[in-house]
Amino acid sequence: MDPKPTSAARTSLSHIMTAVDTNLLGTVHGGVIMKLVDDVAGAVAQRHSGGPAVTAAMDGMTFLQPVRVGDLVHAHAQVNWAGRSSMEVGVRVLAEPWDRAGVAPTRVATAYLVFVAVDDQGQPRAIPPVLPETPEDERRLREAEIRRHHRLTRRDEILASRTANPL
């Protein structure tokens, strides 16, 4: 399969946050932001893989600033790394006031999700490698490989611990 450039599947979604999105503190509920993140990451994964892809893991979600009612929230995503059937999608979440033009957006969250491309029977299917286009894309690819290594090492250590200490 020919590699796909990072720009081929890059996507953004935006949403105006309303009172129905708030938590008990009066700011936007983290779960609302997480859903937006999963939606945009899923779109990117499916665009890159050329078909269905399912969320396998959220490798990390960091909330940096609160989001307020009335904020226009933008989630920007791209494939950082791709293997045989799985891929990491990185998401940057920015917020800006909906009613004031020219105000610089604030980064409010970042996330890394792992998706697996699936066929009609729900089995993993092959996907194209990702082709970094910029130095930033190359950095994101290197960091995605580090996160993958840590994720797999953690899984192996947990399984070994369970084998050594069964319930």
Question: What keyword list fits this structure?
Answer:
alpha+beta, Thiol Ester Dehydrase, Chain A, 7 strands, two-stranded parallel ribbon, globular, 2 helices, 167 residues, 5-stranded antiparallel sheet
Short description:
This protein is α+β, with helices and mostly antiparallel strands and 167 residues long. Helices cover 30% and strands 34% of the residues.
Q: What does it look like?
A:
- There is one protein chain.
- This protein has a single domain (4-164), classed as Thiol Ester Dehydrase, Chain A (Roll), CATH 3.10.129.10.
- 30% of the residues lie in helices and 34% in strands.
- The protein has two helices and seven strands, in the order E-E-H-E-E-E-E-E-H.
- It has helices at 30-49, 135-164, and strands at 4-5, 11-16, 53-63, 71-82, 86-97, 106-117, 130-131.
- The strands form two sheets. A five-stranded antiparallel beta sheet has the order 2-4-5-6-3. The protein has a two-stranded parallel sheet with strand order 1-7.
- The radius of gyration is 18 Å and the shape is globular.
- The protein starts with a strand and ends with a helix.
- The model has no long low-confidence stretch (mean pLDDT 96).
